Amino acid sequence: MTIRGNILEALRAITHAERGDRRFGTFGGVFTPTVLTVLGVIMYLRLGWVVGNAGLIGAIAIILLAKSVTLCTGLSMSSITTNIRIGAGGAYSIISKSLGLEAGGSVGIPFYISLTLSAALYIIGFTAGWLLFFPNHEPLIVSSVVWFVLLAISYASARFAIRVQYVIMVIIAISLISIFLTPNKPIPTQDVPLLGDFGKADFWTTFAIFFPAVTGIMAGANMSGELKDPRKAIPNGTLTGIAVTLFIYIGLAVFLAFVVPTADLLNTDEIVLEKIAFWSPAVTLGILAATFSSALGSMVGGPRVLQALAEQETVPFSPFFATKTKKGEPRNAIFVTGIAVEIAIVFGNLDALATLITMFFLITYGMLNLVVFIQQSMRIISFRPTFRIPRFVSLLGAFGCALIMFLINAVFSIVAIITIIALYVWLERKGLKSDWGDIRGGIFLAIAEKASRIAARFPRHQISWKPDLLIPIDDPRVWPGPLLFINDIVSPSGSIFAFTVRLGEEAEILASLDDLLLPLKERNVLVSTAAIDDDNFVHGSKMVIQTLKGGAFRPNTLFLTLGSEAKNDPKIKELVEHATSHGMGVVILRQHSRVAFGMQNTVNLWLRDRSPNWNLATLLALQLQTNWDGTLNLITVAENKRETKRLRSFMEQLGDVARFPLMTELHVLVGNFKEALEAAPRGDINIFGLAPGINCPAVRDIAERAQSSCLFVKDSGLESALV
To answer: Hey, which CATH number is domain 3-429, 1.20.1740.10, 2.60.370.10, 2.160.10.10, 3.30.230.40?
Structure first.
């Protein structure tokens, strides 16, 4: 079969997989539940009050502001659903496939809880409407009967629930027609309240009361796992639903302003729409139908979000909740969700939770906008939606959700955010693994690339120096000795670039190098590794030095080890000269075969007052002293006693300017260098400057006389211990 044939066959398989078990189209699966959830109880019971309190212009401003947030979210959701194969769970699926299962679950779990508690709230709202006409009925019995009917409908099948919603949509349409056919005469134009005095509540409080009316835009997306073609159905159904409900809300607000006196609008003891309607029972049925449909939407969508969470083992008892019937119904999730709804109804007053529910809805909307904005900003080729929107739309949506959260209730906003963070930490510790990739690594890479471009505009300065070591390793299998010591040099902010040169058929050498450096990675040290193919170790090492010189995150110090045998001395000398010519500092470690690094407590730093080669040695000594939490001995050698006072003064001034720690001890030794080595205080590491033209036998001799491991250091000229 040709490549083209294979591609076509794969596309057919994907199409079949996407459409085989999903049954609902745009109108029934997305548009209907979206419209019915938005045209809810607030439209019937509170829109008139909003117009009376804020005036016509204020009410339209509130409607447009609230709708702008949901419109931005709807546009963002429409854009991203045309870019990915969205799975079950709606918003959870979108966020998980972009920011990972942890982010998706940390938002998806509260979103599911919000849907569950929303169902309880809508049932309580239905009960309140019912009691207006049948005040002698027992509220708990009414709520329980409604709950049972809703559970039975959702348990039967999603198709049956959609058919019920068609009936509800007809009832709401009849109620709206009855309202607009009111026999009331229009009030005089001069009496129309264009600007309210906000006597009952200020602007933002009024906005907070109205805003939950527009938070139903995810009702269709929650059915994503049941749609024939979610890529088309979600954008078309959601955006059409937003547009239709916007037209209805503004039209109804204008109608009320011109038909109902302000005093009647502000009277919350009466249902003003019922009072003015051509046929008042239609409004009564509309209120009951609106609360019933909203509750049904939550009880149909909520279990499907739970089932999607369980498929990726994001929630406890995942195998139980992930189970579906042969027809694709999440019966276990429906049953448990139904029980949770009934418990919420029985136990109480959900007024406080209502605000928290709104917070979780807003966080979900904000995260959707943020996901789209991030992918737009990264400009990665994988983000190529067929429905494109400007970046300011997703940014405005994310910012608007965050702002509105805190304007509604700052305390509940903080509680909601803390809950999301706690869930993220918990899910991260579970070590979840998805069947798809995500963009988290790309996000940080994009940030790093942006930062590197900014950093490239500024010259590297001594004040920002940190130990970034380049370590050539000839054989990782025999090189474990100084690893922890290297960690103490680079921690907490330095880095390591370790490489080896593959000579011949050593295919596993990179894996050995990774295994060698694994302990440093586990200590959160930034480690990079590479294996270079070359037939000469020194030549390959030179190529690495030259290549890395042009990088944004290039090493600044070559780290070498000096063994007891002299066969590698020419290689070390050549590498030192090459690194120096390319502006790198040099560190050579001669590890003592018996004492290694001793108690890792005392650092001896040897300095000469007229030496130009002491900055890097001083910086490394301070790094080790800090990480060892030990003592620093500052040592110099005087040729005779007359020099002692001058050299001590020199070291005191140096210690003050270089800000040496309080535990620094000053030692001026008299005599020649070899005598000073024998008279010096005992150190776990001795640090010396490295003279030009390295003499490897002399280095070994110094280390032997010092009876400790030693570092020999050469400045690059880019370090300063005085900044």
So the answer is: 1.20.1740.10
